[in-house]
Design goal:
258 residues; alpha+beta; 2 domains; 17 strands
Length: 258
């Protein structure tokens, strides 16, 4: 049997890691690429298409094959593309049907539209927790410091399942204050659907969480410390809401997929 290969780059944003490809993989290759024991290992796969309409196109796939909106993937993939000269430092990026402005100034900034947040209560087997549902391109459920971390790790896989409040399921985010007196800095823990596990960071989860924090505490900038290294900032400026944070090009290689 003839062996084929895919050239890839490994990129990450605050520990949320991706295999960046320059051609679309097959459905069978997606989970194998993301497998940390038998593949490259990643939380998801990015596919760079380059020029698209008035900007560039960058798709994201979860390990289960679902195509989803992914902010950390956009930031990490675009950062590398700018550094490689594949796209200009300012422009438009298309991801999951959305057109977003970006700019690169040492780190990647992505502009995002405001979206509504909805208070809701998750209930199961006699337990209930109040949080906020936010649709930011993918569904997010945000809880603020109302259950301890070990209990959250136990409940999150069940919370992520489809329910009356989020029929398609949701990523589950827990916020814990860095300091009780500081409403601008938060630790965040995320369980991601599609990955079906906790990830070290989730850009869309941090964006949803920022909207909750900005609304509840009337602030214009929020800093998140995810479980991975580094941090992500969400800032309300005169020209909209921008998300930025650490990204890294980890390595380049060829995956033998025969």
């Amino acid at each position: 049997m003839k062996q084929s290969h895919l050239t890839f780059d490994k990129v990450e944003g605050c520990g949320n890691d991706f295999v960046l490809l320059y051609q679309k993989p097959t459905a069978a290759e997606l989970p194998r690429l993301c497998d940390r024991h038998h593949g490259v290992g990643a939380d998801g796969v990015l596919v760079w298409y380059g020029r698209h309409r008035d900007g560039v196109r960058l798709d994201h796939y979860d390990p289960d094959g679902g195509q989803t909106f992914c902010l950390n993937g956009i930031r990490a993939g675009l950062s590398l593309a700018v550094k490689q000269g594949l796209c200009p430092p300012n422009g438009w990026v298309y991801n999951e049907g959305r057109r977003l402005a970006y700019r690169f100034d040492q780190v990647m900034y992505v502009q995002l539209p405001p979206v509504p947040i909805k208070a809701c209560r998750w209930k199961d087997e006699g337990e209930g927790y109040d949080g906020f549902f936010v649709e930011v391109g993918n569904p997010q459920f945000v809880l603020i410091d109302n259950l301890d971390l070990p209990r959250f790790r136990d409940l999150a896989p069940r919370m992520r399942a489809p329910s009356a409040h989020f029929p398609e399921g949701a990523n589950i985010n827990l916020l814990r204050p860095s300091d009780a007196a500081d409403v601008n800095t938060w630790h965040i823990y995320t369980f991601e659907r599609g990955v079906e596990n906790f990830t070290l960071a989730c850009g869309s989860g941090m964006y949803a969480a920022a909207l909750v924090v900005m609304t509840r505490f009337h602030c214009s900038n929020v800093r998140f410390i995810p479980e991975g290294h580094g941090h992500v900032r969400v800032e309300q400026g005169t020209d909209g809401i921008w998300l930025t944070g650490d990204t890294q090009h980890v390595f380049r290689g060829e995956w033998l997929c025969g």
